[in-house]
Amino acid sequence: MTNTFFEIMRPGINTTIQDTGRNHLYHIGITVSGAIDQRNYKLANNLVNNKSNEAAIEFAYQGPLLKLKNGNINFAITGSIFFNIIRKNSEIEEGKCYQNYILKDGEQIDIISTKKSVYGYLAVSGGLALEETWKSYSINTKAEIGPNNGRKYTVNQKIFIKKSILENIKFRKIDYKDYYNNIVRVIKGPNFDYFSDEAKHIFFKETYSVTRLTDRMGMRLDGPYLENKVSTNIKSEGLIKGVIQVPADGKPIILLADHGTIGGYPKIGTVITADLDKVAQLTYGTKIQFQEVNLEEAEKLFKEYMDKTSKYLNEHN
Amino acid sequence: MIKNISNLGDAAVYCDFGQEVNETVNSYVVNYFNHLANLVKNKEIQGINNLTPSYNKLIVSFDLSLTNFSKLKKIIENLDIKKDIKKNFKKIKIPVCCEDEYGLDFDRLTKKLNLSKEKILKLYFNKEYFCYMTGFIAGMPFLGNISEKIRCERLETPRIKVPKGSVGITEQFANIYTFESPGGWNIIGNTPKEIFKKSNLQDPALIKPGDKVIFYQISKEEYLKFND
After folding, report:
1. Which of A123, A126, A217, A298 is 20 to 30 A from residue B14's alpha carbon, by CA?
2. pLDDT digits (tens, 9 = 90+) for A169-220
């Protein structure tokens, strides 16, 4: 560990540490957590030459204001983010995502806000000096597991840098293109037939909007009522990221990275893995439309998603 | 036995053991869970991220970049589940204090069930319950079956905060809130015993699927002194 650290001057509204997530614990009620947008998390680490599962700082909407102390670092930010680098003589440099920068002792990173999305990532070359809990650095605020006693960061806290690597820095850029559309692809769920014919039709035809009742656990949607003809409760059973539950109020909820491990609402569908990053980044008020795909198509779309991620990762090597 | 295996999305296998909720069906689920967990532990199977047993389902979630539904379906169909696996189910005793400040819902329960508090507690305590599953929040056990005479539906309006340690009942089940959490179960008392220990990294959850649990009543004095 170095003595170099970020002092948190402003924490931002939802600043945590995340990585690829925590596995093999669903059966005791501990959810996966991890970066909610895995591709952008990986790209941030890649830009500063970290291994792909190094811990990164995740923030939402308003990000943190961080002051670097006792050393210099190489960092990168990914997402769709407004940020400034406040240099030593108070000179403000407008930051660009998808490229790396050197930050010197006493300088600051001011992550002002996300633009058309919710989450962003800050990775530091050499990583952050944190301890793993069950082989993951992810903060799970609900069960208070992970670094910082499983809590969001607050003002005046410090985040130490593990190993500041400044030799042979390559300045890298990724030409990231956000292919933005509002189609969310879904495989029908085990309780699809609990819903009326009209509800089934509505689900894939009408639009639903993202409400403010959205966090790392899940995304509540608003839109036409989905009539359940069988039962609005099922015997509690396991859940995964992307499951779309419909409780008695007839409005779908999409489960995200910090979801409960079991639940008792009918599952109308599951968002395909290739669309999970995109869904998590949808801002309040965005209107989305569900589109049905089958398993074979979903697997093909996942391969395309992976190929595209690899293309970005290899772009500058 | 598994009645049907289907896909839950593109990255999970949904093993359906039917609609019934009883110890026999759940034992099948737990047996499959233990067999698969052993394969994962011994690295004899690739790509599984999580196994979630519940009353009558087992969900196997996986990393789609390492495996896929059809491969795992075949493995699950061909599991030799008759093979005995060494698994010691425990019998765990849990102390519960039911004084009014901990037993939050006796007003409701005595009215709904038309039984006195003493009668409810008599029917509840010193019986062996079976752990069907753990989850929702870390380490929360779902236990059953409680006496038919004390079965009651959830609160109409769930509490925003149920205190840590609360012991709740709903329908045929009992549970323990391992953390402060929102929840709608009828709270009959509170246990001073730590059910989920984060610091115990090897074995954080005291109660696991297949274990037996016996609740016994303690006084407030005993409750307050329990962790001294």
Report:
1. A217
2. 889 999 998 777 899 999 999 999 999 999 999 999 999 999 999 999 999 9
Output the pLDDT for position B80. Answer: 87
**In the predicted structure, residue B85 carries a pLDDT above the cut 70:** no
Taking contacts as CB-CB distances below 8 angstroms, the residues of chain A near B16 are: 190
Q: Do B179 and A271 touch (CB under 8 A)?
A: no
Tell me the shortest Cα–Cα distance from B217 to chain A, in angstroms: 26
Alpha-carbon span B134 to B137, nearest angstrom: 8
Q: What is the pLDDT of residue B228?
A: 87
Given the candidates 2.40.100.10, 3.40.30.10, 3.40.720.10, 3.30.70.380, the CATH classification of the domain at B91-225 is: 2.40.100.10
Mean pLDDT of A88-114: 96
Residue B220 has pLDDT above 90, yes or no: yes
Q: Any residues with CB less than 8 A from the CB of A7 and at least 6 apart, and which?
A: A66, A67, A69, A156, A157, A158
Which is it for strands B212-218 and B91-97: parallel, antiparallel or unpaired? parallel
pLDDT for A315 equals: 81
Q: How many A-B residue pairs are in contact by the CB < 8 A criterion?
A: 141
Q: Which amino acid is at A244?
A: I
The CATH classification of domain A183-314, taken from the options 2.60.40.1510, 2.40.100.10, 2.40.50.220, 2.60.40.10: 2.40.100.10
* Minimum Cα–Cα distance from B14: chain A residue: A190
Q: Is the pLDDT of residue A317 over 60?
A: no
Q: What is the pLDDT of residue A142?
A: 85
Determine the Cα–Cα distance for residues A87 and A91; give it in Å rounded to an integer. Answer: 5
Tokens read off for B84: 């005995």
Q: State the nearest Cα–Cα gap between A243 and chain B, in angstroms.
A: 8
Average pLDDT on B26-55 reads 94
CATH of domain B4-77: 3.30.1360.40
d(CA B125, CA B169) in angstroms, rounded, equals 12
Q: Is B39 on the interface with A (CB under 8 A)?
A: no
Residues paired with A123 in a beta bridge? A76
